[in-house]
Design a protein that fits this description.
single chain, Aspartate Aminotransferase, domain 1, Aspartate Aminotransferase, domain 2, 2 domains, 3-stranded antiparallel sheet, about 40% helix, globular
Length: about 375
């Protein structure tokens, strides 16, 4: 049998694979706080719009860039909420944010190029970089420095897994660094609406001189509880979008018209759904803060507590499984974070979360 691609073989074995094997051996499924999702039911529009099985258009290809009416509505949202002077030719609809990030990586980088990834970070992004044959340089914001052959910088705001929300001053520092070294910026803004304690989300592309060098990535998965719909989008200057669209077209030709119609209907409702659910997420965060030895996240959906060392963190994961709660090993989120675990507080309803918090509190008290 021929060998698979060297780039594919460079992908790290996911620590989630080990976790999945351990979960299979349990007598009953644990409470799942290891994956990032929400228990919220999507808005009614997401459940009904586009599902008319008699509509012939739902069985046809749609425009590869996205339904024109959705592109128009997204450009209005980007201007209103993100401060971006975007028109439809700045926008591409994608198969979730994962497809958007994959398209950005393969458009902006070549094999051997370097990219700075602010850590801790979402695990799949590092895999995208390595699959291309590019080189990922994990750095914390405090240790930001230029490396040879680096062409881009990636970060998430709010961040997954630690919930950091970047201040305007921090974004200005990143912008100055990118401009000084002529870097592309890939800005992952999937959790843009998950904000607590007065923190505000700012898109780095809205800062002076950044729209031309930034690819901003967004998703319907988090804000509107539509992860299963697989609808995301990215925003970039039209000169960059020309190439991004070609890459997107050669990977996922177009997104289901039905799902795009659902996304359009939800988008037109504005932020009503978000405003209804954000207090519930904030309450869940506050309850978990009583059980978990970690500071409250500023945004996002996770706690990211630290342990004495990697072994203690992994022991905590195993103890959690035996007690009935699954959390994610920190090693997935960067080379320097094996002594952490990630715990999602939006993935289960309040009653189930209370059971999980009681279990977690006992485990933390026993450390």
């Amino acid at each position: 049998m021929p060998e698979v691609s060297t780039h594919v073989r460079s992908l790290k074995q996911s620590v989630y694979a080990s976790l999945a094997e351990k979960m299979k051996a349990l007598p009953e499924p644990p409470i799942g706080l290891h994956l990032g999702d929400t228990y919220a039911v999507p808005p009614a529009a997401a459940r009904w719009e586009g599902l008319d099985l008699s509509a012939p258009g739902n069985y046809r290809y749609s425009h590869p860039s996205g339904l024109p009416v959705l592109l128009e509505e997204l450009s209005v949202k980007l201007a209103r909420e993100n401060g971006l002077a975007a028109t439809p030719d700045w926008v591409q609809v994608t198969c979730g944010a994962t497809h958007a990030l994959h398209s950005a990586v393969h458009t902006l980088l070549q094999p051997g190029d370097g990219i700075i990834i602010l850590s801790p970070y979402w695990p799949l992004f590092g895999g995208m970089v390595r699959c291309l044959g590019a080189v990922d340089h994990e750095m914390r914001l405090a240790d930001l420095e230029m490396r040879p052959r680096v062409r881009a910088l990636y970060f998430a705001n709010p961040n997954n897994p630690d919930g950091k929300v970047y201040s305007r001053e921090e974004l200005q520092r990143l912008a100055a660094f990118a401009q000084e070294h002529d870097l592309w910026v890939i800005s992952d803004e999937c959790y843009e609406h998950y904000l607590y304690d007065g923190h505000q989300h700012i898109s780095i592309a809205s800062l002076p001189g950044m729209a031309e060098r930034t690819v901003s990535v967004f998703s319907f998965s988090k804000s509107y509880a539509m992860a299963g719909h697989r609808v995301g989008y990215l925003c970039a200057h039209p000169e960059v979008m020309l190439w991004l669209r070609r890459l997107a077209n050669h990977s996922v030709y177009n997104i289901s018209p039905s799902l795009q119609k659902a996304a359009l209907a939800v988008l037109r409702q504005g932020r009503q759904f978000v405003s209804e659910w954000l207090p519930a997420y904030a309450a869940a965060r506050d309850r978990m803060a009583e059980a978990v030895k970690a500071k409250k996240p500023e945004g996002g959906a996770y706690f990211f507590p630290a342990f004495r060392d990697a072994q203690q963190a992994w022991d905590f994961v195993e103890q959690g499984l035996q007690a009935g709660v699954a959390v994610a090993p920190g090693a997935a989120f960067g080379d320097d974070f094996a002594h952490h675990v990630r715990i999602c507080f939006t993935s289960v309803d309040g009653k189930t979360l209370e059971r999980a918090c009681q279990i977690l509190q006992r485990l933390f008290q026993s450390l």
